[in-house]
Amino acid sequence: MTVELTMRVRPDAEGSAEWSEVSRIAVQLLDHLNSKDVQERIRQAKKPGKSSEGIQDAFLGYATSLGFASEAKGLFADASLALRPDHYKPLESSGILLEVARGRVTNNNLDLHNICKVHLCPSADYLFLMVPGEVKNSSTRNEYLSVKRRLNGFFEEGMTTNVRGLCLFGY
Fold first, then answer.
1. How far apart are CA 143 and CA 150, in angstroms?
2. At CA 170, angle to CA 11 and CA 29, rounded to 5?
3. How far apart (Å, rounded) are the C-alpha atoms in residues 101 and 169?
4. What pLDDT shows up at residue 70?
5. pLDDT of 107-158, one tens digit each?
6. Of 10, 69, 86, 88, which residue is 20 to 30 A from 55 by alpha carbon distance?
7. Concatenated DSSP letters for 150-163?
8. How far apart are CA 13 and CA 134, in angstroms?
């Protein structure tokens, strides 16, 4: 069960120094997620009845060493939105929201919810989204492939969102 990574970037952000940094961080995180110890922890956390916190616990120490802070508050200009990310990493002029989903991602539109979070967040333009592949206690649909298909359109020429890039991890 290797963690997969799909990266999408808006055409106007492709080739930027900021996207290069985001991509580098994504590959570092991917390498860590595919280490033997983390793979075993993810496998245990994916069992039916478990929550997304188990997945987060498998890599949180490493994410912290990369500069991610847990559930950062005050990132959204409109406090009435009551939104906060699972994790946040500031960049020089932007930031990355890291969100971890456990199951039924597309049924509950969590992928779209997280794209909207980045769109509404003045402190972030990038999303690291972790979603399961097959969910044992759900349908046989591969959530990673479904989310990948659904979010592709946000990075086509002519789209107007504040989301410059997506790093989609399928665990």
1. 10
2. 75
3. 10
4. 87
5. 778 889 899 999 989 999 999 999 988 755 555 568 888 899 889 888 888 8
6. 10
7. HHHGGGSTT---S-
8. 32
Distance separating alpha carbons of residues 21 and 44, to the nearest angstrom? 31
Strand partners for 168: 6, 129
- Give dist(CA 168, CA 99) in Å, integer: 10
Q: Give the global pTM.
A: 0.89
Tokens of 100: 């971890």
Per DSSP, the three-state class of 101 is coil
Does position 96 have pLDDT exceeding 80, yes or no?
Answer: yes
Distances (CA, A) of 132 to 28, 103, 122, 141: 19, 7, 28, 10
Pairing of strands 87-90, 69-70: antiparallel
d(CA 156, CA 144) in angstroms, rounded, equals 19
Per-residue pLDDT at 142: 81
**How many Å apart are CA 36 and CA 33, to the nearest integer?**
8
Tell me how far apart the terminal alpha carbons of the chain are, to the nearest angstrom.
Answer: 7
Q: What is the mean pLDDT of the chain?
A: 88
* C-alpha–C-alpha distance, residues 121 and 134, integer Å: 30
pLDDT (average), residues 40-58: 86
